[in-house]
Structure to design on (764 residues):
């Protein structure tokens, strides 16, 4: 592989004449880039750019490559970039196991065992038939993490995924997430200094300035 | 398949605007041919002046009363337990077909109706039905009553849908903390914002009330009738020369609606001015007690009239011998039902077929449009949103006669297919209005989450979005079916009188006055419109019984 990791080359996102985001970065597998800033500073615009869900009124220039592969213009589902939101967004009409199976790549063999194993990995054995709405915040976070990982992404975006958890749970979940994604490039968006410290990588704002 | 959807908004606009424009042309040509001969004949019709006056007065009075009651109810009672009760009473009435509600009302208030029977002979002294013209009175009061009973729930629900954007709770508490009464405070701070959003629905009610045919046939005066009823009579007359006269009258009807809408708009401006002066005056109260009690009584009375009317239909359909002034029939019998079973069965099948196909097409177009909007950001903007109202604002009697002649010119003979397409014109706007808000309110991050897991747009649509939105989708389908079931004029005119639905048959029976038959047909018509709502209510409950995150959603 020519170039491992997620590379952002002069990425600029404009709304009208305002530059919201201007950033260059190289995130190697296993590295975390933390983007900090107050709400409304353009953090979610950057994530929308990376997932390919920017609203049409935004204009983006520059280039993003994942493992040497340009991702600009690709559909969200073709990018192989996973994302975790703070609300976890488990599909409410599916059971916990069905949520995980939704993430599992098509054509994967032994789907039931894979799902059971994923649940066991995060200490949720037997939770498969449960209704996601009956899970605690920490359990939902773990299911959402496993759902994302079962889709075998090549990079991971974290959109304040720990913000809704209370302090103790936040530490546990945070270390679980960073442990599980050891070999992926990760972009973490947060306004919590403790998140940035736990991530351990470079910390920048949406203008690419190091903090 | 992503690219394949892009044409759907254009198709939708064509479905909405095409028939209306084609119909207008089809009305203009015969009306203006032979140098206005049609207009001279129309002017010579002795009933013209009364018909015009009837249309204007009944339409404007019915709309004003409905808006007044709906507004007074929300202003006086919003957020209270009484309001929720009235809301629950009135919402199902929305889907009761106009014709069935009108028959129910007629059975109630007619000289030989239930009300007279309950009061006779002990209070009235009547031993036989009095010779009074209560139903079909020349001034159109019973027609107005029938319209108000159906349009008040519509405007109330439109108001409720508009409320969240007006954040009424906070505004009202601020006003109340400044010493304003509930009614005065509501009218000053909440109502102006709500009205701006329900303006188009109010215009729809006005245009509809001025030009409705089935309700006016049942409750309106007959010599002369309202202008729209007369247009329908001329259109259905075997004497084809009368069609030119009908076209001229249709243009006149359009002019009247435009005139009334213009007058209404001027009145809006006047009321807004007066309202501003009222705000400057700082009056804290507006006859709070009287407004509240009158509104509540009116709301409950409207619901009661329709419900008791429907019970009247049910009772007549199984009544044996029932002499005046007895309050109950001497015996109950299934004879009426056995006699009409075969006809009802056939008409029910055709009604269901038309309703299901028109609704299926409408749902496909609407979901397609909303998906295009979601995937490509191509939104039906202001102009596109307003086009939804086009078939509802241009009276049916104005463009349907022209459309029917057009279809015959292009060689498409009256039959099932044209009727389904004509129904689609009216079903589509309501399905769109019913589904649009919930569809757009869906948390778009679920789509991002699914796509980030590798799901393509089709998989997101069919396995995530539609299942999560099953409740609003089924409700929109029920709305579509109810709208289709209650259509009278499109079936009659575009079907060339050859398609018999529950509604056309029930309205046709109205002329004969066989109460037992009317009762049976009206009841089945109501059931056909209400049943889908029951399905829309219970299917999601069953599907979601083990999914708390979907309940109440």
């Amino acid at each position: 592989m020519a170039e491992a990791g997620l590379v952002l080359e002069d990425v600029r996102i404009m709304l009208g004449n305002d530059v919201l985001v201007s950033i260059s970065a190289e995130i190697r597998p296993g590295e975390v880039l933390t983007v900090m800033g107050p709400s409304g500073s353009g953090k979610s615009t950057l994530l929308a750019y990376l997932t390919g869900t920017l609203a049409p009124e935004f204009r983006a220039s520059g280039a993003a490559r994942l493992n040497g592969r340009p991702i600009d213009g690709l559909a969200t589902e073709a990018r192989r970039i996973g994302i975790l939101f703070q609300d976890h967004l488990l599909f409410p009409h599916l059971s916990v196991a069905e949520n995980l199976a939704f993430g599992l790549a098509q054509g994967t063999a032994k789907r039931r065992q894979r799902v059971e194993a994923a649940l066991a990995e995060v200490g949720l054995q037997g939770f498969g038939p449960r209704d996601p709405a009956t899970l605690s915040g920490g359990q939902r976070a773990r299911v959402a993490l496993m759902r994302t990982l079962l889709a075998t992404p090549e990079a991971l975006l974290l959109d304040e995924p720990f913000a809704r958890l209370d302090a103790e749970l936040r530490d546990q979940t945070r270390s679980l997430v960073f442990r599980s994604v050891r070999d992926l490039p990760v972009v973490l968006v947060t306004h919590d200094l403790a998140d940035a410290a736990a991530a351990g990588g470079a910390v920048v704002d949406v203008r690419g300035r190091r903090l | 398949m992503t690219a394949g959807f892009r044409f759907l908004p254009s198709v939708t606009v064509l479905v909405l605007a095409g028939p209306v424009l084609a119909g207008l042309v089809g009305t203009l040509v015969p009306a203006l041919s032979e140098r206005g001969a049609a207009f001279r004949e129309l002017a010579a019709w002795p009933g013209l002046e009364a018909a015009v006056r009837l249309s204007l007065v009944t339409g404007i009075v019915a709309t004003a009363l409905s808006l007044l009651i709906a507004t007074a109810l929300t202003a006086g009672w919003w957020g209270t337990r009484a309001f929720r009760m009235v809301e629950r009473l009135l919402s199902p009435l929305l889907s009761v077909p106009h014709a069935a509600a009108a028959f129910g009302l007629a059975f109630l208030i007619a000289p030989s109706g239930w009300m007279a029977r309950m009061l006779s002979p002990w209070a009235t002294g009547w031993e036989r039905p009095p010779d009074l013209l209560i139903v079909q009175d020349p001034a159109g009061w019973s027609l107005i009553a029938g319209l108000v009973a159906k349009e008040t729930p519509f405007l109330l629900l439109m108001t409720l849908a508009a409320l969240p954007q007006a954040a009424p709770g906070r505004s009202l508490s601020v006003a109340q903390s400044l010493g304003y009464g509930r009614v005065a405070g509501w009218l000053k701070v909440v109502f102006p914002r709500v009205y701006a959003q329900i303006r188009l629905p109010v215009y729809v009610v006005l245009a509809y009330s001025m030009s409705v045919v089935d309700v006016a046939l049942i409750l309106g005066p007959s010599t002369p009738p309202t202008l729209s009823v007369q247009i329908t009579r001329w259109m259905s007359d075997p004497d084809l020369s009368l069609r030119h006269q009908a076209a001229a009258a249709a243009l006149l009807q359009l002019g009247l609606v435009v005139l009334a809408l213009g007058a209404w708009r001027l009145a809006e401006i006047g009321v807004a001015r007066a309202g501003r002066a009222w705000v400057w005056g700082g009056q804290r109260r507006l006859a709070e007690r009287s407004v509240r009690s009158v509104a509540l009584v009116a709301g409950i009375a409207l619901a009661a009239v329709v419900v008791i009317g429907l019970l009247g239909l049910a009772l007549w359909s199984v009544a044996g011998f029932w002499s005046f002034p007895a309050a109950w029939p001497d015996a109950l019998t299934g004879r009426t039902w056995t006699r009409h079973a075969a006809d009802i069965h056939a008409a029910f099948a055709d009604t269901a077929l038309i309703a299901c196909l028109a609704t299926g097409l409408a749902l496909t177009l609407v979901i397609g449009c909303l998906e295009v909007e979601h995937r490509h950001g191509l939104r039906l903007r202001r102009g596109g949103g307003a086009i939804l109202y086009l078939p509802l604002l241009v009276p049916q009697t104005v463009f349907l006669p022209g459309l029917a002649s057009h279809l015959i010119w292009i060689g498409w003979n009256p039959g099932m297919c044209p009727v389904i397409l004509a129904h689609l014109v009216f079903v589509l706007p309501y399905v769109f209005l019913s589904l649009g808000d919930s569809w757009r309110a869906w948390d778009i991050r679920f789509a991002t989450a699914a796509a980030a897991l590798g799901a393509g747009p089709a998989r997101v649509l069919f396995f995530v979005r539609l299942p999560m939105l099953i409740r609003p989708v089924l409700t929109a389908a029920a709305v579509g079916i109810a709208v289709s079931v209650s259509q009278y004029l499109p079936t009659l005119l575009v079907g060339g009188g050859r398609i018999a639905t529950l509604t056309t048959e029930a309205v046709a029976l109205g002329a004969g006055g066989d109460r037992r038959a009317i009762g049976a047909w009206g009841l089945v018509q109501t059931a056909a419109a209400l049943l889908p709502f029951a399905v829309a209510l219970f299917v999601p409950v069953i599907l979601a019984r083990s999914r708390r995150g979907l309940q109440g959603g």
